[in-house]
Task: structure prediction
Amino acid sequence: MTSITNKGLELEHSYKDVILDVMRNVFVKNGKLVLRVSGSSMYPVLQNGACVAVTKCSFENLKIGDIIVYQKFKTHVTIHRVNSIIKDGDLTYLRTQGDNNECLDEYIVSVSDFWGKVEV
Result:
């Protein structure tokens, strides 16, 4: 850290990490979770502030068009639609995109990033 003003932000991020870990553990145990949408990347299907139900499903059974929840970054989860499925030998990856976004997400989603499928 280069300045003392960043310390509060650092603490805030650590709380987000803990909260997401707890949420994921509850999800793994129960197989269901309700999340509140934050943002407009999935508009008009999912609107800012809406609650969505997420259920466990097999990564291998996902299809193009499914809306999924995944955690690519430590401090937030993303709800986007599967745009394409990439097979690389025994490994499978997903390309995703928000319905209201012009471009595909810059990264690929692996099985370890994947939480579950949104019920719509």
Summary: The chain has one domain: 6-119. The chain has a mean pLDDT of 87.
